[in-house]
Amino acid sequence: MNQTITNEIREVMQAVHYRPAVSIFLPFETRLNNKNQLTKSLKYVTEHVEKELSAGYPAEMTTTIIRKLRNIFKDLDFNTTKKSLAVFISPVFEKLLYLDIPLEEKVIIDESFEIRDLVYSKKQFHQYLVLLLSQRESRIFLGNNQGFVRIASQTAFNDMSEVPERVANFSDVQDRKELNMDKFLQSVDHSLEEIIRTYQLPIFVLGADKTIGHFRQFSKHSGSVIAYIPGNYERIILPELKELLAPYLLRWNEDSQKNLLKQLDDAASHKKLATGMVDVWREAMAGKGRLLVVEKNYMYAASHGESPEIIEPMTESITPFSCIRDAVDDVLEKVLEGGGDVEFVNEGVLDEYRKIALVQYY
Asked: How far is it, in rounded angstroms, from Cα 20 to Cα 5?
């Protein structure tokens, strides 16, 4: 199952489509803003939604939505440690989500709920593991866009009673140190087993050249390693670690985009690739979407065709009841509902694919 889509988000996706569908995204950093500031922001958003609804929908419907919104805002948890809110309201549905991911303020009123911002923010909220290695200690951190949290550490024990007798007779102390180091690194790699299984994230390994060299001989998790970064990092502080990893994270993102393009080429060679919004819509609505790749700011206003599988570019003014405000969001939702995945790439990366591409099941 796609881990980007939580059960709460799936509940919103599966809600009955009913106009007007109001999606609200708000930053909600209670530790950085006092309650009065946040309350003023909520009041402003409520007034904005009411104004937008009043301009295009009956008064009774507007009243229903605003009443629901005020009730949700009235019962907010101002002690939460989450970073943002997502609110979804229609005449027949309402849902509040507290999110760990940062979101910019945004209000969307359409025929269906806006899912793109949630999915995009989760996709861009890169998480990874960092293993800091020395001959005597290991530290494992969970990293993301905001910082690091230590999740495990391990210290070597110099128990010479466990060294074989023939080794205990060695005069070369260095041999003993290397044997102990190897035993320790094997233990570290063994502990990685459960951590990688639990988090299912790639990992950066940092340490001295020699230590990394020994570790690579024993490690069973080389397939999860993004990069080995040699150096002495025993005394590194977290801000320095963030700065150190920055170019590697950039390269990781670039490599990920290259891998996505390769997947598109492979699908095209099997005649299982749709490109451009009209063709992508047709295949997605037929339930064929395995992987949707789209440029992050690409939007496409369209009008419904003669059947659900057909859309046409919007050529007239957008009105609340005659068009699809953003067909990209509807396709994204359809692909995710069908068990597929969605990836975003930088603007311009998909120029030859007309900004959007869909890999079909094969």
From this structure: 24
Is 275 within the bounds of a domain?
yes
- Which range marks the domain in which residue 287 is found? 254-362
Out of 103, 125, 147, a domain closes at 125
Read off the pTM.
0.74
Of residues 170 and 330, which shows the higher confidence score? 330
Residue 247 located in a structural domain: no
- Antiparallel, parallel or unpaired: β 203-207 and 225-230: parallel
**CA–CA gap between residue 24 and residue 114 (Å, rounded):** 9
Question: What is the domain-level CATH number for residue 286?
Answer: 3.30.1330.30
208-225, pLDDT tens digit by residue? 999 999 999 989 999 999
pLDDT in tens, 58-79: 999 999 999 999 999 999 999 9
For the chain, the C-alpha Rg in angstroms (whole number) is 26
Q: Give φ, ψ of 150 to 5 degrees.
A: -75, 130
Helix residue ranges, H only, the chain: 7-13, 35-56, 59-74, 116-124, 165-168, 173-199, 209-218, 238-269, 277-285, 327-337
Q: Look up residue 120 and give its amino acid.
A: Y
Looking at every residue in the chain, the average pLDDT score rounds to: 88
Whether residue 249 is contained in a domain is answered as no
> Is residue 241 included in any domain, yes or no?
no
Identify the pLDDT of residue 135: 83
Residue 320, pLDDT > 60, answer no
Asked if 44 and 121 sit in the same domain, the reply is yes
Same domain, 116 and 2: yes
Find out whether 334 and 285 touch, Cβ atoms under 8 Å.
Answer: yes
What is the C-alpha to C-alpha distance for residues 33 and 28, in angstroms, rounded to an integer?
8
- Residue 157: pLDDT over 60: yes
Sign of CA dihedral 356, 117, 94, 40: negative
3-state DSSP helix/strand/coil percent for the chain, to nearest 5? 45, 25, 35
